[in-house]
Design goal:
mainly beta, three-stranded mixed beta sheet, about 425 residues
């Protein structure tokens, strides 16, 4: 049963015990709490949880997407959550093993909307002499499982980036059976002998290599869906949430601005596995900021035009200040804003406006979400940090609209 968290909503944390933990058991002291079954194998352990932290995505666009993670702490007054109590309702008597065990499914939801779905990777039990005991639980999303598999030798065929991802997930040695949302992709990948995938190649590493050719987003969504989005660029998606400091939008507690020379890329080199290559550079930027390189030496691209385009795409010749992360606390949001903020996901667009003394007009911009970190404390509430990247938002043309009716800003949808 979902439990309320102060000024945040109703939350539910569930663990797969691996067996029908709630069914009626003969000769059990827990008969008064059991049912005749069958019932779901998921056990509601929300009542024991004191805090939860989850993180998905990346902090910067030049980082690769890895496995999303979640950790939480459970307070155990009686030892019922420990691995040695065979009378616990979470102990599997049929197999004589704890029901709360690694590699079992876990899911976190708020008001019926999932925030994280994955598997448990480890439990750490801390037994106190005078109690209570605590259990630390570490979790990861579907990318963790992909990172544990290796490919057999894979003779690839002509495919777009999205088609290649779909094919890899369907390989018998991967055998991914979960949900996916895979875009077609904008680039064609190589398929001659140079691009044959060697046996023993890590599955997740190869999928990341595909995404490096596309320069899109490959991640696990909040509902556990493996998601692939095409090359990051302009978008027709308007902001889902407007964060403002003037009281007219969702409030934020912290806003970080980055103005960093490390973001400059004024020379980029891309080489395909067939040795086709390209170099792009910006001489004006080199004159101001010296040479700052970005190289991809094992690109899955094979067409010279696509390699040229990617090298140019990688250039970031001039640093500019921008909002890089925003933190909001649910205690400052309305009910509707909490619902909207909690369901934001990677690739969604938000707007941020900040009034800076002495500048006159506020500094406002639209940004794409690249990463999400959430902290849920039962005594304080829910806090979320969004890591962002610049985006060019193109809105559909709306005739006679004072904003969306302008041809130089909007397109025919």
């Amino acid at each position: 049963m979902a439990s309320p968290v102060i000024q945040s909503g109703d939350y539910l944390l569930e663990l797969d015990t691996g067996f029908d933990y709630s069914s009626f058991r003969l000769d059990s002291s827990l008969l008064d709490t059991g049912t005749l079954g069958p019932a779901t194998t998921y056990a509601d352990i929300t009542e024991y949880v004191t805090n939860v932290t989850y993180s998905r995505g990346r902090k910067k666009t030049d980082y690769q997407f890895g496995a999303g993670v979640m950790s939480f702490t459970m307070r155990d007054e009686t030892g019922i959550l420990g691995p040695y109590d065979s009378t616990s309702p979470y102990y599997d008597p049929n197999n004589s093993e704890p029901g709360l065990a690694p590699m079992r499914s876990v899911r976190l939801s708020r008001d019926g909307e999932y925030l994280f779905i994955g598997i448990v990777t480890s439990y750490y039990y801390q037994f106190e002499y005078a109690g209570p005991n605590y259990v630390q639980v570490q979790c990861a999303d579907e990318f963790y499982k992909l990172a544990q598999t290796q490919l057999d030798e894979y003779n690839v065929s002509s495919q777009t980036s999205g088609q290649r991802i779909t094919s890899v997930l369907a390989l018998p040695e991967v055998d991914y059976t979960g949900t996916t949302n895979i875009a077609t992709g904008t680039v064609n990948l190589g398929h001659d002998a140079s691009y044959t995938v060697p046996q023993g190649t890590n599955t997740l590493t190869y999928l990341q290599q595909i995404n490096a050719a596309e320069q899109g987003r490959l991640f696990v969504a909040r509902d556990g869906t493996i998601t692939f989005q095409e090359r990051v660029g302009t978008t027709l998606t308007p902001p889902i949430v407007d964060f403002r400091d003037d009281g007219t939008g969702a409030k934020y507690t912290n806003l970080e601005v980055e103005f960093d020379a490390d973001n400059v890329v004024n020379r980029a080199y891309v080489r395909g596995l067939n040795n086709n290559n390209a170099t792009a550079s910006d001489t004006a930027s080199i004159a101001k900021y010296f040479i700052q390189n970005n190289s991809i030496l094992n690109s899955l691209l094979h067409e010279q035009t696509a390699i040229n385009t990617l090298a140019t795409y990688l250039l970031e010749p001039d640093p500019a200040p921008r909002y890089t992360s925003l933190t909001t606390w649910f205690g400052t949001l309305t009910t509707t804003q909490r619902d909207d903020v909690s369901t934001l996901d990677i690739g969604d667009t938000i707007s941020i406006e900040k009034a800076i003394p002495g500048l006159g007009a506020p500094v406002a911009t639209d940004l794409s979400i690249e990463g999400i970190t959430g902290i849920i404390d039962v005594n304080r509430g829910h806090t979320i940090t969004f890591y962002t990247s610049p985006t060019v938002v193109v809105y559909e043309l709306i005739l006679n609209d004072p904003v969306y009716g302008k041809l130089d800003f909007n397109v025919l949808g």
